[in-house]
Amino acid sequence: MEAVEVIEGKVSVLDRADVDTDQIIPKQFLKRLERSGYGEFLFYDWMRDGEIELEPNPILLTGRNFGCGSSREHAVWALRDFGFEAVVAPSFADIFYVNCTKNGLLPVILDEEHCLGIAEAGEARIDVDEQTVDFAGGVVRFDIDEEIKHRLLHGLDDIGTTLQRADEIDAFERAGGADRGPVTTSL
Amino acid sequence: MPKTLFDKIWEPHEVADGLIYIDLHLVHEITSAQAFEGLRLAGRGVRRPDKTLATADHNVPTDGTPAARLIAEEMSRKQVEALEHNCEQFGVPVYSLGSGRRGIVHVIGPELGLTQPGMAIVCGDSHTSTHGAFGALAFGIGTSEVEHVLATQCLLQRRPRTMRINYAGGLGRGVTPKDLILATLGRLGTHGMIGYAVEYAGAPVRELSMEGRMTVCNMTIEGGGRAGMVAPDDATFAYIEGRPGAPEDFAAAVERWRELPSDDGATFDREVEIDASEISPMVTWGTQPGQVVEVTDPVPDPATMDSAPDREAAERALAYMALEPGTPMRDILLDRVFIGSCVNSRIEDLRAAASMIAGHRASGSVRAMVVPGSEQVKAAAEKEGLDEVFRAAGFEWRSSGCSMCLGMNPDVLGEGERCASTSNRNYEGRQGKGGRTHLVSPQMAAAAAVEGRFVDIRDWS
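^ Those are the sequences you sent over. The predicted structure of the assembly is below.
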């Protein structure tokens, strides 16, 4: 994953609440075996029907509970492929939020009032380390988990990092922690 | 200090702060291909294939196609073949087409006895919350996390907040677990549970069968909840006993499991009280599961809604659904009925639906289909003669899979078709582009098929 430090530029606005991942990337595009090439299918039905128009700006600003529904990471791949580097919203669905952080797409949670301000300003500068969004209406701070921030700032590979802790996992398993649960290979 | 059910599962699974151990990892064809490819590219293996199980469910045809290589649709065929190949290469057991144990991943986990109290369970599917019905901590993850769990058997995870929903009273006649959860979503909204692990509690939940509890926990994600759970009890233990994955020393396991329910005095970050006796049969009218009313209500008027986002969402939903405010829900005419999906496709659901239609026929204007949750459910239903009941009533009887819940296989709604569906999502285009979905219980769906419109099953015979 590439490091994410500062995201700066124009803002695309999708003024809708509860946008689900079925809209972000419809089912017919989930049959591909790759992680890339989803950008042209972003919001496929809404874009094709002319219901919405979105420019591939660095920042997407949208409504509460963005990314609800299916766990499909294809939704994040599509947003990233399309050109978005950050999504700003009053809230995100949990699985979608995590999926964003695994792909260098920065999710920023801000209250409705500041979201409106950023939409009006039309451009913004987001500093991950400072945890700030700078726009014509002022500078506002956002919360982000320290661990997630660290991984984004350094573009860390989660799996590689966890595998460096294999000793801890080995010890946990030896202590009986892995005895719980069934054995799927002997059914 | 008194602990919650959640605490009692979370704490013993912490390998370290923020790193939890996974007891069971379920895998399917849609969200795993890129994860296996990631392992291959990095030269990594699957750490614990013996804690991993795969099946093909999302895009499989329901016409009885007996092997992956015979799937007519090319991309689906390639995806299922990729799953089989990946599982073979990495030593992961897989139940694919042709296996009598194949089925929807959230149906076969419990059915095989793999889903057990106290476990941490993940799957690259948002409806993994289903397994919480057994007093497990179970939640959906994305493909990057699937790869992480395959490689490490662990997951980086922040402790969620806890919520308990206390139901009082009892469910009335004709009111099902599906109505209980739909009414709860109507109350809390589709974002009301974000960030929470939710425990469903109270006598009305205790009285539910395991199938009913799975229905309730399944739709936790529709409220944005991280996980849904019900404390394990005798009903849980009786369901698991004798199944292939059940612990060898079952008595010892039950003794451990009995320690899991939340202690008296345990505190939750949020508690909600709901009177179950006030719940009626429910029908969704919009394009989110929380846009729901009682079957006896009319389509709501967005103008009466206080919050601007709710009002705007309702206006868009009504336009998509082609509904006018004030229209009685019971006047809405249907084209299709779908009985199936991971929320309502188990044997009890099929029995309930069949009991409504014995001696009736589906309306001539409705195409109705039943898709059992697994090959085992299908076989059990056929043994009881349920397939004959459905066929005699003019319903199609299909093979198992996710089917028209998400329309990744040939089972889809046509543009503008209106469907009473026992599934869990009524999003725009979910069951097919331009399709209009109303979520209901299996009993409501069956009765609606006969009448060609929604009926209040409490006064229908």
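The first helix of chain A runs from residue 21 to 24. The beta strands of chain A are 6-14, 59-62, 86-89, 106-109, 123-127, 132-135, 138-141.

Shout if you want it in another format.
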